[in-house]
Amino acid sequence: MNKTIYKIEGMHCPSCASMIELDLEDAGITAKCSYAKGALEIEGDHDKKNVVEVVKKSGYSLS
């Protein structure tokens, strides 16, 4: 299974990472977000456009 890692900008604490994970889960995307690494890790196929939209609505951005 392939793994995609995105850099996330705008997180201020570990709770931010948890919130992103929960918002993505609500959208049907299983992901791991790390505040320490500033990264979002998604395994398997997914729609990047959908990920960007969910992360943006949460108040963060992908780079």
From TrEMBL:
Question: What SUPFAM superfamilies is this protein classified in?
Answer: HMA, heavy metal-associated domain
Record-annotated membrane-spanning stretches: none
Q: Which Gene3D superfamilies match?
A: 3.30.70.100
The residues covered by the HMA domain are 6-60
Q: Which Pfam families match?
A: HMA
Question: Mind listing the GO molecular function terms for this protein?
Answer: metal ion binding
Protein name, as recorded: HMA domain-containing protein
Q: What is the lineage of its organism?
A: Bacteria, Candidatus Woeseibacteriota
